Amino acid sequence: MQLIPCPWCGPREEVEFHYGGQAHVAYPAAPADLSDREWAEYVFFRDNPKGLFAERWVHSTGCRRWFNAIRDTGTHDFRAVYRPNEPKPVIS
Amino acid sequence: MTNSFRTSTGGRVNRELPLSFQFDGTPYSGYAGDTLASALLANGKHDIASSIKFGRPRGVFAAGPEDPSGVIQIEEPFPEPMLMASTVELYDGLVASGLPGQGWLADRPDPARYDAVHHHCDLLVVGAGPAGLSAALTGARAGARVVLVDSLSEAGGSLLGSTEVIDGRPALEWVESVTAELDEHPDVLHLQRATAFGCYDDGFALALENRTDHLGGAADPDDTRQRVWRIRAQYLVIATGAHERPVVFNDNDRPGIMLAASARTFLHRFGVLAGGRAVLFTTNDSAYAAAFDLSDAGVTIVAVADSRAQVSERLQDGCVRRGIALHTGHVVSGTDGDRRVESVDIAALTGDNEVGQAERVAADLLLVSGGWNPAVHLFSQARGRLRYDDGIGAFVPAEDLEQGRAVGAAAGHFGLADALRDGASAAAAALGPTATAAVTEHQVDDLVEAPSAVLWSVPGSGETGMAFVDLQRDATTQDVLRAVGAGLRSVEHVKRYTTIGTGLDQGKTSGVVTSGIIADALGVGVAELGVTTYRPPYTPVAFAALAGRNRGQLLDPVRLTPTHVWALTRGAEFENVGQWKRAWYFPREGESMDGAVARECRAAREGVAFMDGSTLGKIDVQGPGAGELLDRIYTNMMSTLKVGRARYGVMCGADGMVVDDGTVIRLADEHFLLTTTTGNAASVLETMEEWLQTEWPELRVHLTSVTEHWATFPVVGPKSREVIAALVPDLDVSNDAFGFMTWRDAEIAGVPVRIVRISFSGELAYEVNVSAWHAMAVWRAIAEAGRPHGITPYGTETMHVLRAEKGFPIIGQDTDATMTPQDLGMSWVVSKKKEDFVGKRSFTRLENQREDRKQLVGLLPQDPSVLLPEGGQVIETADLPEAPVRMLGHVTSSYHSATSGCTFALAVVRGGRDRLGETLYVPMNGTPVPVTVSDTVLYDKEGARRDG
Ligand SMILES: [Zn+2]
Fold first, then answer.
1. What ipTM is given for this predicted complex?
2. Do B1-109 and B617-705 agree at the fold level?
3. Which of B152, B153, B301, B619 is the most exposed place for a label (fewest CB within 10 A)?
4. CB-based contact (8 Å) between A35 and chain B?
């Protein structure tokens, strides 16, 4: 069972976490101004890369806080975790 | 015949402690320290099982868990199928039998106790052989938290089955001194009879400890029989040794054919001679030790067939000194015998993949060694890469793990000096300078061995007769060649085609051999072909052990409401709602469920009834941004709610689909309390937190689950006002003073309560909320005050009938994740004023505007006695047409209405609201039943009853 490093609690077992999908998909500033297509892009469409992916996670049975992570979807390695107000780290 | 194959002295068994056991109905005796296999062999019992496909007799092929053929069933004290005789420690009273490839499960619950322990350490060492002990000792001396696990009954590993010398003393003396020193370190956990069976991410490993079986009847029945250790290690040292590899030849499966080092182990560890006249067939130097030691113990070694053209002088001398005929360049080409090997055919290798004329020699034991496979299972599970080593014909670790390393024989370093050095340096690498300083050098007498030959299968094997690759699966060389002939090229495909490696031994002896045979057949290298994936568990683990304490009552937590015991004593039937036990209905003596529900409904509609609704999810929302948060989450406006008032609300996902509903009350300017459906309490809180933390961090709001803190008792019915008035005499309960959707603080039975005028039944109703600690006092007070009015307790079934009669949907029952508030006919709950809220933009999507969306409607069976099945499909025609039938929707709720004297249902139907009055059909047992589409409200359509 993998350890996931919560930015607040430190490394904890993966069963304590829930997955929250792609990170940095901001809620549109004015949804009413969007076309159906643009709105659907926000609601339904997400990237699905093999390799590094910025994702949201929540420490559900721990501190209950959300954070972002850069994870390698090929290896499941968490390459970085950062709080929601922190910029996405640059990882090669 | 008792222990006639036991040496007079020696071995690690306790000859002072004889044990009785039964096998296949025959009584035998053995000693404490025996395995079932060693005890059977000591009694000269070799044919102990039969094979799964061909029913051929099979014996003990190996002394450890790699044994593919000695498969047995324990019958008493408790049935346990499919165990290897070599891994079952003997105990007094054991009753076992050989298996024809399949066992049988107990027909009663296992009375034994199983549990799990979590443990954390700096260094996890798997295997207490020379490499593992050396690693553990180095770690312990450096002050590290060390866990050492080993599957055998005592430490020593391969040293237990050999005559090695360390620092001039017998190796087992060194083992004893190391374990004694480990014992003195408080931070060292040393477990024997504990098999690490799985390695996972980030240094996580599972080990199964057998704690009581070997004690037999002396074991405390309350003690834990097996324990799963869940170990999280900073660094993993894999010192799991190596498995000897067989060579495939004709009739290589007879009882009495055994891996060479296993026979040596039976001799040195158990004082057991595996036969009287033996032949050794080898491709390497290591097996000579078995032949020599057995010879020295009195076994006649008839011949040694070594596939290599030359062997060292030392080995030649050893054979000469013992009078052993050494045939270099020879192989075993076949065997004969009835229930056991009786003769062995020895033939010369004649150049290009052929064997010469065989010479038949009489023997009751055939020792085989085709070299060694490092036990890389755990290393590979931990995602270590393997590489094929041509020299030894085996896969070895190609690298260190990020947090670990394979050492000694597991790394392909077979010498004793290598093992001792490897173990210590792994610990030093993990722990740094203090451990490096603790590394000790040892003097051992390692013989430099000549290179092994790599031989998977004797030429010509299987062309006539059967040559087995996987003894447990009865899979032969011909099966492998057939798979290759069918076009399979990958070892994984061949495995699945032939079932090789899928037995409970998981191919420990057959895996690499299979790769070799495929490679030869395809004319490719073993390196490029690879080997099948190693997956946990390394050895079989019973589900009971994995379940541990999580059985029966402890399988899942049970949540009880404050009135649970009261309802129990009133004879309530309960239903499970998630983890909650909820009172379902309260039957009187001799009353059916339908009768009870009809009576409870009547009380609520005509008099007064009360229930425990405490399972409702409750979330306390506080902070200056509370109103704004609720405005963004709910479809309707919440920030305008006045203190003292309540409002019904619906929440949607961003896709506009309803996810939950409930009521919101405002307790203060910056303080709200909202309810969720019972099943969604956790997910609603998590969703609200998600929006709050990830999208609206500027809102200053705290969310707290208070589901268990508040008990909730709806008091329902036209007489409920009188009951509340009696309970709280100084509260003005008139409709003008205490109107619908308002709340008041009050006191009942000396306990502060909050009373809310909300109704889930359409009747005049008061919801009494009280701290769960004091709930029973208030519940009893309500029962007492209601007694003059015949107050009736009701359960969830009546609650459902009452709400369905009013057309109130249950989110998750009448909806799935495709229903909008508009689909539910609740456009009124969607704010037109708010610029935005979660889901709003989706309502105007083209898809959400379609007129043929499924909408919630009522269905009235035209025969008012027919109860429609929930989940029943709704179709358009009276005759069931040919499939595929066009489905218009399905029934979501269906009940008898005692009040209206008919059955009724809620359903989602395509374009349903345009179909009011139409006749549709619901097939029941293949016959479409006519129903009339109606609006969702069956009872009190004008809503006249809620104010009493
Ligand atoms: Zn956390």
1. 0.97
2. no
3. B153
4. no
Q: What's the rounded Cα separation, in Å, for the pair B905 and B933?
A: 10
- For residue A1, give the nearest of B204, B689, B694 by CB distance: B204
Under CATH, what is the fold of the domain B247-369?
Answer: FAD/NAD(P)-binding domain (3.50.50)
Within 8 A of B693 by CB-CB distance, chain A residues are 65-66, 84
**pLDDT tens figures, B737-770:** 999 999 999 999 999 999 999 999 999 999 999 9
- pTM for the model: 0.91
Q: Are B479 and B466 in contact (CB under 8 A)?
A: no
Q: Do B202 and A11 touch (CB under 8 A)?
A: yes
Q: Which pLDDT band holds residue B1 (cuts at 50, 70, 90)?
A: very low
Residue B98, judged by CB atoms within 10 A of its CB (0-12, 13-18, 19+), counts as: buried
Tell me how far apart the alpha carbons of residues B114 and B227 are, in angstroms, rounded to a whole number. Answer: 6
- Topology at the third CATH level for domain A3-82: Folate-binding fold (3.30.2270)
Contacts of A32 in chain B (CB under 8 A): 835-836, 840-841
> Is B689 within 8 Å of A66 when comparing Cβ atoms?
yes
Name residues with Cβ closer than 5 Å to ligand 1, which is an ion.
A 6, 8-9, 59, 62-63
What are the domain boundaries of chain B?
1-109, 110-243+372-448, 247-369, 456-548, 563-614+710-802, 617-705, 853-947
Report the alpha-carbon distance of residue B240 to residue B228 in Å, rounded: 19
In a 3-state reduction of DSSP, which class is residue B813? coil
Residue A85, by phi and psi: left (phi above 0), alpha (psi -120 to 50) or beta? alpha
| Residues of chain A contacting B686 with CB distance shorter than 8 Å | 18, 58, 60, 64
Q: Which fold has domain B617-705?
A: Alpha-Beta Plaits (3.30.70)
- Taking an 8 Å cut-off on Cβ atoms, the answer to whether B845 and A27 are in contact is no
Taking Cα atoms as reference points, which of B760, B747, B723 lies closest to residue B613? Answer: B760
DSSP state of B453: P
Is A56 in the B-facing interface, judged by CB distances under 8 Å? yes
Distances (CA, A) of B495 to B58, B61, B518: 22, 21, 11
In CATH terms, B456-548 corresponds, of 1.20.1730, 1.10.10, 1.10.287, 1.10.150, to 1.10.10
In this structure, which topology does domain B563-614+710-802 adopt according to CATH? Gyrase A; domain 2 (3.30.1360)
- DSSP of B533-597: PP-S-SS---HHHHHTT-SGGGSS--EE-TTHHHHHHTT-EEEEETTEEEEEE-PPTT--HHHHH
A85 in contact with B at a CB cutoff of 8 Å? yes
Residue B561 tokens read as: 């409401």
Note the CATH number of domain B1-109: 3.10.20.440
Sequence spans of domains, chain A:
3-82
- What CATH code is assigned to B110-243+372-448? 3.50.50.60
Q: What angle is formed at CA B396 by the lines to CA B395 and CA B397, rounded to 5 degrees? A: 135
> What's the Cα-to-Cα distance from B754 to each of B86, B638, B734, B768, rounded to whole Å?
69, 20, 17, 6
Report the C-alpha gap between B735 and B738 in whole angstroms: 5
Burial of B165 (0-12, 13-18, 19+ CB in 10 A): middle
Instruction: Please report residues of A whose CB lies closer than 8 A to that of B384.
Output: none
Rg of chain A over all Cα atoms, to the nearest angstrom = 15
> Has residue B55 got a pLDDT over 50?
yes
Contact A2 B202 (CB under 8 A): yes
Fold of B853-947: Elongation Factor Tu (Ef-tu); domain 3 (2.40.30)
Quote the DSSP letter at residue B828: G
Please state the three-class secondary structure of B505-528 as a single string: CCCCCCHHHHHHHHHHHHCCCHHH
